Amino acid sequence: GEDVEQSLFLSVREGDSSVINCTYTDSSSTYLYWYKQEPGAGLQLLTYIFSNMDMKQDQRLTVLLNKKDKHLSLRIADTQTGDSAIYFCAEPISGNTPLVFGKGTRLSVIA
Amino acid sequence: KAGVTQTPRYLIKTRGQQVTLSCSPISGHRSVSWYQQTPGQGLQFLFEYFSETQRNKGNFPGRFSGRQFSNSRSEMNVSTLELGDSALYLCASSLGAGVNTGELFFGEGSRLTVL
Question: Which residue of A has its CA nearest to B38?
Answer without folding.
Answer: A103
